[in-house]
Write a structure and sequence with these properties.
Blueprint lengths: L20 H14 L12 H8 L3 H13 L3 E4 L3 E4 L17 H25 L2 H17 L2 H14 L3 H10 L11 H4 L4 H20 L3 H26 L3
Antiparallel strand pairs: 1-2
Helix pairs in contact: 1-3, 2-3, 4-6, 4-9, 4-10, 5-6, 5-9, 6-7, 9-10
Protein backbone atom coordinates (compact mmCIF):
# COMPACT_ATOMS: atom_id res chain seq x y z
CA UNK A 1 0.00 0.00 0.00
CA UNK A 2 1.28 3.44 -0.89
CA UNK A 3 1.37 5.63 2.22
CA UNK A 4 -0.33 8.47 0.34
CA UNK A 5 -3.36 6.33 -0.50
CA UNK A 6 -5.21 6.85 2.77
CA UNK A 7 -5.31 10.61 2.67
CA UNK A 8 -4.63 11.99 -0.79
CA UNK A 9 -7.51 14.35 -1.74
CA UNK A 10 -8.46 15.12 -5.32
CA UNK A 11 -7.19 18.43 -6.61
CA UNK A 12 -10.68 19.78 -7.18
CA UNK A 13 -12.18 18.73 -3.86
CA UNK A 14 -12.73 21.61 -1.45
CA UNK A 15 -10.98 21.18 1.88
CA UNK A 16 -13.45 20.19 4.55
CA UNK A 17 -13.32 22.02 7.87
CA UNK A 18 -13.30 20.02 11.08
CA UNK A 19 -13.93 20.95 14.69
CA UNK A 20 -10.36 19.99 15.56
CA UNK A 21 -7.25 18.48 13.98
CA UNK A 22 -7.81 15.02 15.42
CA UNK A 23 -11.28 14.85 13.86
CA UNK A 24 -9.76 15.50 10.43
CA UNK A 25 -7.35 12.57 10.87
CA UNK A 26 -10.18 10.33 12.14
CA UNK A 27 -12.41 11.19 9.17
CA UNK A 28 -9.61 10.58 6.67
CA UNK A 29 -8.65 7.17 8.05
CA UNK A 30 -12.31 6.18 8.58
CA UNK A 31 -13.05 7.03 4.93
CA UNK A 32 -10.12 4.89 3.80
CA UNK A 33 -11.48 1.97 5.84
CA UNK A 34 -15.04 2.45 4.51
CA UNK A 35 -13.77 2.69 0.91
CA UNK A 36 -11.65 -0.44 1.26
CA UNK A 37 -8.35 1.37 0.77
CA UNK A 38 -7.42 0.10 4.22
CA UNK A 39 -8.63 -3.47 4.60
CA UNK A 40 -9.25 -5.55 7.77
CA UNK A 41 -5.98 -6.87 9.13
CA UNK A 42 -3.87 -4.20 7.43
CA UNK A 43 -1.51 -2.08 9.50
CA UNK A 44 -1.93 1.69 9.63
CA UNK A 45 1.04 3.87 8.72
CA UNK A 46 3.28 4.75 11.66
CA UNK A 47 2.56 7.78 13.82
CA UNK A 48 5.43 9.64 12.14
CA UNK A 49 4.01 9.00 8.67
CA UNK A 50 0.50 10.10 9.68
CA UNK A 51 1.99 13.22 11.29
CA UNK A 52 3.72 14.08 8.02
CA UNK A 53 0.64 13.33 5.90
CA UNK A 54 -1.62 15.62 7.90
CA UNK A 55 0.86 18.15 9.23
CA UNK A 56 -0.14 17.49 12.82
CA UNK A 57 1.61 16.67 16.07
CA UNK A 58 2.10 13.24 17.63
CA UNK A 59 -0.44 14.18 20.32
CA UNK A 60 -3.09 14.81 17.65
CA UNK A 61 -2.32 11.50 15.93
CA UNK A 62 -2.61 9.60 19.22
CA UNK A 63 -5.93 11.30 19.99
CA UNK A 64 -7.21 10.31 16.55
CA UNK A 65 -6.08 6.70 17.02
CA UNK A 66 -7.85 6.68 20.39
CA UNK A 67 -11.11 7.77 18.70
CA UNK A 68 -10.70 5.07 16.04
CA UNK A 69 -10.10 2.48 18.76
CA UNK A 70 -13.15 3.62 20.70
CA UNK A 71 -15.22 3.33 17.52
CA UNK A 72 -14.03 -0.26 17.06
CA UNK A 73 -12.37 0.49 13.72
CA UNK A 74 -8.79 -0.34 14.73
CA UNK A 75 -6.85 -2.03 17.49
CA UNK A 76 -3.34 -1.28 18.70
CA UNK A 77 -1.01 -4.17 19.44
CA UNK A 78 1.70 -2.82 21.69
CA UNK A 79 5.12 -2.96 20.13
CA UNK A 80 3.71 -3.98 16.75
CA UNK A 81 1.38 -1.30 15.46
CA UNK A 82 -2.26 -0.39 14.84
CA UNK A 83 -4.41 -2.63 12.65
CA UNK A 84 -7.78 -2.32 10.93
CA UNK A 85 -10.50 -4.50 12.48
CA UNK A 86 -13.14 -6.56 10.70
CA UNK A 87 -16.46 -4.69 10.34
CA UNK A 88 -19.48 -5.94 12.32
CA UNK A 89 -21.00 -9.10 10.84
CA UNK A 90 -24.41 -7.47 10.35
CA UNK A 91 -25.82 -3.97 10.80
CA UNK A 92 -27.77 -3.29 13.97
CA UNK A 93 -31.51 -2.90 13.58
CA UNK A 94 -31.68 0.20 15.79
CA UNK A 95 -31.57 3.32 13.65
CA UNK A 96 -30.55 6.60 15.34
CA UNK A 97 -32.77 8.38 12.79
CA UNK A 98 -35.85 6.83 14.39
CA UNK A 99 -35.03 8.16 17.87
CA UNK A 100 -37.07 11.35 17.80
CA UNK A 101 -39.22 11.65 20.92
CA UNK A 102 -38.61 11.67 24.66
CA UNK A 103 -40.25 8.22 24.77
CA UNK A 104 -37.67 6.97 22.26
CA UNK A 105 -34.78 8.33 24.33
CA UNK A 106 -36.26 6.75 27.48
CA UNK A 107 -36.39 3.41 25.68
CA UNK A 108 -32.74 3.74 24.68
CA UNK A 109 -31.84 4.54 28.30
CA UNK A 110 -33.52 1.30 29.40
CA UNK A 111 -31.39 -0.58 26.88
CA UNK A 112 -28.26 1.21 28.06
CA UNK A 113 -28.90 0.39 31.72
CA UNK A 114 -28.76 -3.33 30.95
CA UNK A 115 -25.84 -2.96 28.55
CA UNK A 116 -23.56 -0.40 30.15
CA UNK A 117 -23.77 -1.56 33.76
CA UNK A 118 -22.12 -4.80 32.65
CA UNK A 119 -19.70 -2.89 30.44
CA UNK A 120 -18.58 -0.88 33.48
CA UNK A 121 -18.12 -4.10 35.47
CA UNK A 122 -15.95 -5.58 32.73
CA UNK A 123 -14.02 -2.34 32.21
CA UNK A 124 -13.09 -2.21 35.89
CA UNK A 125 -11.87 -5.79 35.63
CA UNK A 126 -9.98 -5.53 32.36
CA UNK A 127 -8.95 -1.93 31.72
CA UNK A 128 -5.32 -1.08 31.03
CA UNK A 129 -3.48 1.85 32.55
CA UNK A 130 -3.54 3.57 29.16
CA UNK A 131 -7.31 3.13 28.89
CA UNK A 132 -7.76 4.52 32.40
CA UNK A 133 -5.64 7.54 31.40
CA UNK A 134 -7.79 8.14 28.31
CA UNK A 135 -10.97 7.90 30.39
CA UNK A 136 -9.52 10.43 32.81
CA UNK A 137 -8.80 12.83 29.96
CA UNK A 138 -12.34 12.46 28.60
CA UNK A 139 -13.69 13.04 32.11
CA UNK A 140 -11.69 16.26 32.42
CA UNK A 141 -13.20 17.51 29.16
CA UNK A 142 -16.66 16.73 30.53
CA UNK A 143 -15.92 18.58 33.77
CA UNK A 144 -14.50 21.60 31.94
CA UNK A 145 -17.44 22.22 29.66
CA UNK A 146 -20.13 19.57 29.82
CA UNK A 147 -19.33 18.59 26.23
CA UNK A 148 -21.70 16.02 24.71
CA UNK A 149 -18.85 14.81 22.48
CA UNK A 150 -16.63 14.19 25.53
CA UNK A 151 -19.54 12.45 27.26
CA UNK A 152 -19.99 10.09 24.30
CA UNK A 153 -16.24 9.46 24.19
CA UNK A 154 -16.17 8.63 27.92
CA UNK A 155 -18.83 5.95 27.49
CA UNK A 156 -17.17 4.57 24.34
CA UNK A 157 -13.83 4.29 26.16
CA UNK A 158 -15.51 2.28 28.91
CA UNK A 159 -16.98 0.00 26.25
CA UNK A 160 -13.56 -0.34 24.64
CA UNK A 161 -11.99 -1.29 27.98
CA UNK A 162 -14.28 -4.34 28.20
CA UNK A 163 -12.19 -5.98 25.48
CA UNK A 164 -15.48 -6.94 23.81
CA UNK A 165 -15.88 -5.14 20.50
CA UNK A 166 -19.65 -5.62 20.40
CA UNK A 167 -20.19 -3.21 23.27
CA UNK A 168 -18.30 -0.64 21.18
CA UNK A 169 -20.24 -1.53 18.02
CA UNK A 170 -23.61 -0.91 19.66
CA UNK A 171 -22.69 2.39 21.32
CA UNK A 172 -20.89 3.64 18.20
CA UNK A 173 -23.94 2.80 16.09
CA UNK A 174 -26.18 4.81 18.42
CA UNK A 175 -23.75 7.75 18.38
CA UNK A 176 -24.82 10.87 20.28
CA UNK A 177 -28.29 9.40 20.88
CA UNK A 178 -26.76 7.63 23.91
CA UNK A 179 -26.59 11.04 25.62
CA UNK A 180 -30.15 12.26 26.32
CA UNK A 181 -29.19 15.95 26.43
CA UNK A 182 -27.89 15.62 22.86
CA UNK A 183 -31.54 15.17 21.79
CA UNK A 184 -33.54 17.01 24.46
CA UNK A 185 -32.68 19.70 26.97
CA UNK A 186 -33.70 17.85 30.13
CA UNK A 187 -32.70 20.69 32.44
CA UNK A 188 -34.71 23.25 30.49
CA UNK A 189 -37.78 21.03 30.11
CA UNK A 190 -37.82 20.29 33.84
CA UNK A 191 -37.18 23.93 34.73
CA UNK A 192 -33.99 22.84 36.45
CA UNK A 193 -30.92 24.99 37.05
CA UNK A 194 -28.48 24.05 34.23
CA UNK A 195 -25.43 24.50 36.49
CA UNK A 196 -26.89 22.23 39.18
CA UNK A 197 -27.94 19.72 36.51
CA UNK A 198 -24.42 19.54 35.04
CA UNK A 199 -22.87 19.31 38.49
CA UNK A 200 -24.94 16.22 39.28
CA UNK A 201 -24.13 14.62 35.93
CA UNK A 202 -20.43 15.40 36.35
CA UNK A 203 -20.38 13.86 39.83
CA UNK A 204 -21.96 10.70 38.47
CA UNK A 205 -19.27 10.44 35.79
CA UNK A 206 -16.58 10.92 38.42
CA UNK A 207 -18.03 8.07 40.51
CA UNK A 208 -17.91 5.73 37.49
CA UNK A 209 -14.36 6.72 36.63
CA UNK A 210 -12.98 6.34 40.14
CA UNK A 211 -14.53 2.88 40.53
CA UNK A 212 -12.95 1.76 37.25
CA UNK A 213 -9.66 3.40 38.25
CA UNK A 214 -9.48 1.46 41.52
CA UNK A 215 -10.49 -1.75 39.68
CA UNK A 216 -13.75 -2.10 41.61
CA UNK A 217 -16.16 -3.95 39.28
CA UNK A 218 -19.16 -3.90 41.63
CA UNK A 219 -18.61 -0.22 42.41
CA UNK A 220 -18.35 0.58 38.69
CA UNK A 221 -21.52 -1.36 37.92
CA UNK A 222 -23.41 0.42 40.72
CA UNK A 223 -22.11 3.86 39.69
CA UNK A 224 -23.10 3.30 36.06
CA UNK A 225 -26.54 2.04 37.05
CA UNK A 226 -27.01 5.09 39.28
CA UNK A 227 -25.94 7.44 36.49
CA UNK A 228 -28.18 5.93 33.83
CA UNK A 229 -31.14 5.46 36.19
CA UNK A 230 -30.83 9.09 37.26
CA UNK A 231 -30.68 10.13 33.61
CA UNK A 232 -33.88 8.20 33.01
CA UNK A 233 -35.60 9.80 36.01
CA UNK A 234 -34.42 13.29 35.01
CA UNK A 235 -35.87 12.73 31.55
CA UNK A 236 -39.13 11.38 32.95
CA UNK A 237 -39.39 14.46 35.15
CA UNK A 238 -38.74 16.65 32.11
CA UNK A 239 -41.45 14.77 30.22
CA UNK A 240 -43.99 15.35 33.00
CA UNK A 241 -43.04 19.02 33.39
CA UNK A 242 -43.33 19.68 29.67
CA UNK A 243 -46.67 17.89 29.23
CA UNK A 244 -49.67 20.11 28.40
CA UNK A 245 -51.71 21.06 31.45
Amino acid sequence: MRMTDITAPTAAAPKKRYRNLAQGVVESISASIRDGVLKPGEKLPTESVIMEMHGVSRTVVREAISHLQAAGLVETRHGIGTFVLEPPVAPLMISPDTIRTIEDVLAILELRISLETEAAWLAASRRTDEQAREMGEALQRILQGGSVEADVQFHLLIAQATGNRYFVDILTHLGTTIIPRARVNSAQLAHDDPAAYLERVNREHEDIYHAILRRDPEGARAAMRTHLSNSRERLRKAQVESAPR
